[in-house]
Automatic annotation (TrEMBL):
InterPro entries: NOL6/Upt22 (IPR005554), Nrap_D2 (IPR035367), Nrap_D3 (IPR035368), Nrap_D4 (IPR035369), Nrap_D5 (IPR035370). It comes from Neovison vison. It is found in: Nucleus, Nucleolus. One of its GO terms (biological process) is tRNA export from nucleus. GO terms for cellular component: CURI complex; small-subunit processome; UTP-C complex. This is Nucleolar protein 6.
Length: 715
């Protein structure tokens, strides 16, 4: 959408650019259309017309104005063949930088030799709301008149015949680029086109030309820093820094003894830190451009409320997830260091959405480490009351504890199960004896209560899936064949820990992954389709947005990631293509080609939704049990309906209205509705529309016995 609106980079400018490249022999008549496209993109990506202008004029007449003269008057310079007309007179510097940014992305996509490069480059729409992490609308436009006066832009107003929107635009973008600094990768603006008018009437007023919308493409590295560090107090630049930041700038002493000017933004949780650009933008526009906060509608964190836990209103749960992961790391160290186990622990691996940061509602610790009496009270509070028969919802986090292989293991499946059960009991004894942890052992797992979080530790033996595959014929011959039991065990003890580890790494690389995955799962479950999709399959679809973001850049905010999730789900050809999620970049282009041809050859034996990873190249283990064709089709239809509704809401300068609309499921397509009694629903408060009246699940007023393990997974 680079050619849209006043001052866009139009098709005419591109035609003139091709003519220029022909005249300078960069394009030859023998080139194919693809080669011409590459040459134009290469030129745009590497040539900054805001610094070094170009000209179609071949005359060497000394009376012609020089390019340097044009650079003083215009941000972007491209002269016509007369040498007197700047074809890019209306193009702003930020529009041209956006063109350059897109050209670089396009060149990278062409160089990657992707199979679907044509589709991604020339047929995938990139509206502003889907391309930029945060968007802000300035409305009404008449406020920009005051901005021109505050910024003393009288010469620009005269040049532009009183068009105060165009006059203020360059200064506003420069101001915000300077203020956002290392947080910002690209700042773009979109402007409505000038409408036609009848010759007998007055032309339309500038204030009636709609809304000025700015898009911010953010850098994840600098985004969450709460500190803008200025110069030392005795430096001459200190006064400029104070003037730029106004009352927000203050002198601070740092650990190295330096006394510097600095600006500190208020942000406690990760969600608030992601929205620091909002504080920066509103502060600078009010201070330097006389545009009050009421005229700036900032769209960046509106969907965050949907992944906040019912008790937390300022945080979106990243902190709770990080606390659970830290607790898991502590438990891993304890398991590694256990003394008294007959076999040593060879690996401890997490296998739960919390441990890859994608659990929609992170667990809250059931017992914070307070004083002894408060511990008694907290534990007692986990019991349900007689009149409120519903315990608190506590989900155990699965941890797989691999034991080393040795000749001591039996070679019979039933005997292995019994040995594992003995290990589960021994594990509980040792954790209680050596570390004082509350444990409860069963034949298949040991539940461990640590720092308020409950972990479900499963002992695994690496050869067990192999032994379950062994089939003995009447003649005593042994053959290997996959059985439901062997596939399930392999998925739980091998595939799931590997996937959890890979996605945990992706979260460290892209901090927005957690928020996008949780919003996506929240939406799928809110549509009553959660049972059709495993957690892992949805996590992988979201991972694809970060690992293969073309033609975009990886999302830096949950909002834009969720919009792209809806677009991917609704437009991907699930019937004729596998979704390849190249975790850790392990698959080469050739291997991906082989996977696609193998997919087409065995399509009839594969599930309707096929997701391929480097560890799972043929079977799509996470979609074997679902979704059914009907459920997948329903998801595709709902995503296609939800996307335009949500984008229209977010691009509305008057405010988005009710942002939860697309999360409410359509109930008219069902024949039967079953309504559940809220008294028996432990997660009643996690509804999309939080109930007006509710009660805390599992509260008992008087202290009881101290050795209680909470009720686990009751829903």
């Amino acid at each position: 959408e680079l050619d849209k609106g006043l001052g866009g980079f139009s098709g005419f400018l591109v035609s003139m650019l091709v003519a220029f490249l022909v005249s300078t022999r960069k394009i030859h008549t023998t080139m194919s259309g693809y080669q011409v496209l590459r040459s134009v993109l290469q030129f745009l990506a590497t040539t900054d017309l805001t610094v070094n202008g170009i000209s179609l004029c071949l005359s060497s007449d000394p009376s012609l104005p020089a390019l340097a003269d044009f650079h003083q008057a215009f941000p972007v310079v491209f002269l016509d063949s007369s040498g007197f007309l700047n074809l890019c007179a209306d193009v702003t510097a930020s529009t041209y930088h956006q063109v350059q940014h897109e050209a670089r992305l396009s060149m990278a996509l062409l160089d990657s030799r992707a199979d679907d490069g044509f589709q991604l480059l020339l047929m995938t729409p990139k509206p502003m709301i889907r391309a930029f992490d945060h968007v802000l609308h300035i409305h009404p436009l008449s406020r920009l008149q005051a901005a021109c006066h505050r910024l003393k832009l009288w010469p620009e107003l005269q040049d532009l015949g009183g068009d105060y929107v165009s006059a203020a635009l360059g200064s506003l973008t420069t101001l915000l680029e300077q203020g956002l600094g290392s947080r910002l990768h690209l700042l773009a603006h979109s402007r409505p086109p000038v409408s036609e008018w009848d010759l007998s009437q007055d032309p339309p007023k500038h204030r009636d030309s709609g809304t000025l919308t700015l898009g911010l493409l953010l850098r994840p590295e600098g985004l969450t820093s709460v500190l803008e560090l200025g110069p030392e107090a005795n430096q001459p630049e200190a006064s400029d820094f104070r003037q730029f930041w106004g009352s927000r700038s203050e002198l601070r002493r740092f650990q190295d003894g330096a006394i510097r000017e600095a600006v500190v933004w208020e942000a406690g949780s990760m969600a608030q830190k992601r929205l620091i650009p909002h504080q920066v933008v509103t502060h600078l526009l009010a201070l330097h451009a006389n545009i009050p906060e009421t005229c700036v509608h900032y769209v960046g964190g509106l969907l965050d409320t949907l992944i906040q836990s019912p008790k937390e209103t300022s945080s979106t749960g990243e902190e709770a997830l990080a606390a659970a992961v830290r607790c898991y790391d502590d438990l891993s160290r304890l398991l590694w260091g256990l003394e008294g186990l007959p076999l040593t622990v060879s690996a401890v691996q997490g296998a739960h959405p919390v441990l890859r940061y994608t659990e929609v509602f992170p667990p809250t610790p059931v017992r914070p480490a307070y004083s002894f009496y408060e511990q008694l009270r907290e534990r007692a509070s986990l019991l349900p009351r007689p009149d409120k028969p519903c315990p608190a919802y506590v989900e155990p986090m699965t941890v797989v504890c691999h034991l080393e292989g040795s000749g001591q293991w039996p070679q019979d499946a039933e005997a292995i199960r019994r040995v594992r059960a003995a290990f589960q009991l021994r594990l509980a004894e040792l954790l209680t004896q050596q570390h004082g942890l509350q444990c409860r052992a069963t034949a298949t797992h040991t539940d461990v209560l640590k720092d308020g979080f409950v972990f479900r530790v499963r002992v695994a033996y690496q050869r067990e899936p192999q032994i379950l595959r062994e089939m003995r014929s009447p003649e005593g011959m042994i053959s290997l064949r996959d059985t439901p039991a062997s596939l399930h065990l392999e998925r739980e003890t091998r595939h799931l820990p590997l996937l959890t580890s890979a996605l945990h790494g992706l979260q460290q690389q892209h901090p927005a992954f957690s928020g996008v995955a949780r919003l996506a799962k929240r939406w799928v479950r809110a549509q009553l389709l959660g049972a059709g999709f495993t957690d892992e399959s949805l996590d992988l679809v979201v991972a694809a947005l970060f690992l293969h973001p073309e033609p975009f850049t990886p999302p830096s905010s949950p909002q834009v990631g969720f919009l792209r999730f809806l677009f991917l789900v609704s437009t991907f050809d699930w019937k004729n293509n596998p979704l390849i999620v190249n975790l850790n970049n392990e698959l080469t282009v050739e291997e991906q080609g082989e996977i696609r041809s193998g997919f087409l050859a065995t399509r009839t034996q594969l599930p309707v939704m096929v997701i391929v990873t480097p560890q799972d190249r043929k079977n799509s283990v996470w979609t074997q049990d679902g979704p059914t064709p009907q459920i997948l089709q329903q998801l595709v239809v709902l995503a296609a309906e939800a996307l335009p509704v949500l984008e229209k809401q977010l691009m509305d300068p008057q405010g988005p209205g009710d942002i939860r609309t697309v999360f409410r499921p359509p109930l008219d397509l069902y024949d039967v509705l079953i309504r559940l009694s809220p008294r028996h629903i432990p997660r009643h408060r996690q509804a999309v529309d939080s109930p007006a009246a509710s009660f805390c699940r599992g509260l008992l007023s008087e202290p009881g016995p101290t050795s209680l393990m909470p009720v686990l997974g009751y829903d």
